[in-house]
Specification:
With about 210 residues, the protein is of the alpha/beta class. It is about 30% helix and about 30% strand. The protein contains six helices and 13 strands. The longest helix is centred in the first third of the chain and has 19 residues. The protein is globular.
Length: about 210
């Protein structure tokens, strides 16, 4: 079974509390999502392998560490996942960015695919799938399935908020994919929204309804 990591860092929790507030406007919501995403990816990448290299400082030669192994890629799930991209690329500017487009059917609450574009060498990269909300888990599970069908096997899921139902769905369908969240909430309501959640992340991010 995959691991689930819930970040309890004070800065992450503080910023998440502001995002949950219904009075927080679009501009501040967008800035906070960017900031939390950067703080989260700092922790998500904590176990990336490094290797020793020799460099020349202005003073002398010395041993130093640099990233080794697979290169990184990020795959936001459209549209709300786009709000997490800048925070990640601020720390990992060389990461390639793919996109997956899914929308939730209002009747069945199941995801429907309409777009998938990944970097040409994505099968050789460590991929971070980004989506602020992990509600039913359907969109995340289907996105990961699409990625796997394209030959990718090193995948991590990064969410702002998750419901237990979403965690269970992804772990059932993809027990090899670790999940990283800033908040693990209580449940889903009858409309498949996370409780207490923060509403529709895409609408709040882009100022739509």
């Amino acid at each position: 079974m995959s691991k689930v990591v819930v970040f309890d860092h004070p800065l992450i929790q503080h910023k998440l509390s502001i995002m949950r507030d219904k009075n927080t406007g679009t501009k501040e919501f967008r800035e906070l999502l960017n900031e939390i995403s950067m703080l989260m990816v700092y922790e998500v990448t904590r176990d990336l392998p490094t290797e020793e290299v020799t460099i020349e400082t202005p003073i002398c030669a010395c041993k130093a560490r640099q990233l080794a192994g697979k290169k990184l890629g990020i795959v936001p799930i459209l549209r709300a996942g786009l709000g997490m991209v800048e925070g990640v690329t601020n720390l990992i500017p060389a990461a390639r960015v793919g996109h997956i487009g899914l929308y939730r059917d209002p009747e069945t609450h199941e995801p429907v695919e309409y777009y998938c574009k990944l970097p040409a060498d994505s099968e050789n990269r460590e991929l971070l799938v980004l989506d602020p909300m992990l509600a039913t888990g359907g969109s995340a599970s289907d996105a990961i399935t699409l990625i796997k069908k394209r030959g990718c096997s090193h995948i991590r899921l990064v969410n702002l908020i998750a419901a237990p139902e979403g965690i269970a769905r992804v772990q059932r369908d993809h027990p090899d994919v670790d999940i990283y969240v800033a908040g693990l909430d209580e449940k889903l309501n009858e409309h498949a929204y996370i409780v207490p959640g923060l509403g529709d992340a895409g609408d709040r991010l882009f100022g739509t309804k």
